[in-house]
């Protein structure tokens, strides 16, 4: 059975919350260790669903707003200094009817966009934070049990990190995470 739109939408909605994003990163320890402070998660992590960046062309003073093809951007912030750190994790959730080349193509297109000078269009609550982009971007792919094994093999072959999402999302476990 293919990935259902409701599974995708549920995951997108869930990971838009910073606490659920931390639970996601717990499933890939190297990324969890990038969080500046787990004691102050609301100040250490900014999640941006369906993120937009302003791309600045070299030698130009104008910027073009571009919607990135990733699903959620997770930006790390120093809770003391209230500034964005270098680590930017981009989450790609497997979409219904998406094959390996489509999923990988979204990551590659994101790399192309972010190879230029850019800044994040920040959520209103975090608009005071300096949002200059960095060249330190990390992908994380979220797959479902219904995801084709071909996609899993492809991501392993490309040496790109992924986690398997259970279909049972909820913020009950530990008061903030997901089951699974």
Briefly summarize what is shown.
With 180 residues, the chain is α/β, with parallel strands linked by helices. The chain has six helices and eight strands, in the order ααααβββββαββαβ.
Question: Topology of this protein?
Answer:
Layout: H1 5-15, H2 18-25, H3 29-32, H4 41-44, E1 45-49, E2 52-56, E3 63-67, E4 72-78, E5 83-93, H5 100-113, E6 117-120, E7 137-144, H6 149-157, E8 162-165
Parallel strand pairs: 5-7, 7-8
Antiparallel strand pairs: 1-4, 2-3, 2-6, 4-5
Describe the 3D structure.
The structure is a single chain. With 180 residues, this protein is α/β, with parallel strands linked by helices. The protein has one domain (5-38, 48-175). 28% of the residues lie in helices and 27% in strands. It is built from six helices and eight strands, in the order ααααβββββαββαβ. It has helices spanning 5-15, 18-25, 29-32, 41-44, 100-113, 149-157; strands at 45-49, 52-56, 63-67, 72-78, 83-93, 117-120, 137-144, 162-165. A five-stranded mixed β-sheet has the order 1-4-5-7-8, sandwiched between helices. A three-stranded antiparallel β-sheet has the order 3-2-6, with no helix packed on it. It is globular.
């Amino acid at each position: 059975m293919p990935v259902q739109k409701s599974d995708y939408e549920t995951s997108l909605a869930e990971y838009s919350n910073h606490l659920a994003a931390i639970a996601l990163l717990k499933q890939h320890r190297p990324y969890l260790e990038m969080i500046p402070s787990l004691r102050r998660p609301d100040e250490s992590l900014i999640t941006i669903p369906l993120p937009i960046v302003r791309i600045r062309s070299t030698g130009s003073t104008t910027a073009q707003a571009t919607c990135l093809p990733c699903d959620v951007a997770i930006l790390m912030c120093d809770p003391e200094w209230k500034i964005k750190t270098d680590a930017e994790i981009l989450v790609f959730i497997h979409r219904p009817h998406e094959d390996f080349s489509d999923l990988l193509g979204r990551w590659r297109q994101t790399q192309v966009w972010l190879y230029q000078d850019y800044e994040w269009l920040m959520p209103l609550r975090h608009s005071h934070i300096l949002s200059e982009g960095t060249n330190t971007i990390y992908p994380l792919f979220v797959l479902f049990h219904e995801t084709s094994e071909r996609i899993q093999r492809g991501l392993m072959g490309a040496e790109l990190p992924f986690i398997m999402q259970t279909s049972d999302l909820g913020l009950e476990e530990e008061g903030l995470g997901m089951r699974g």
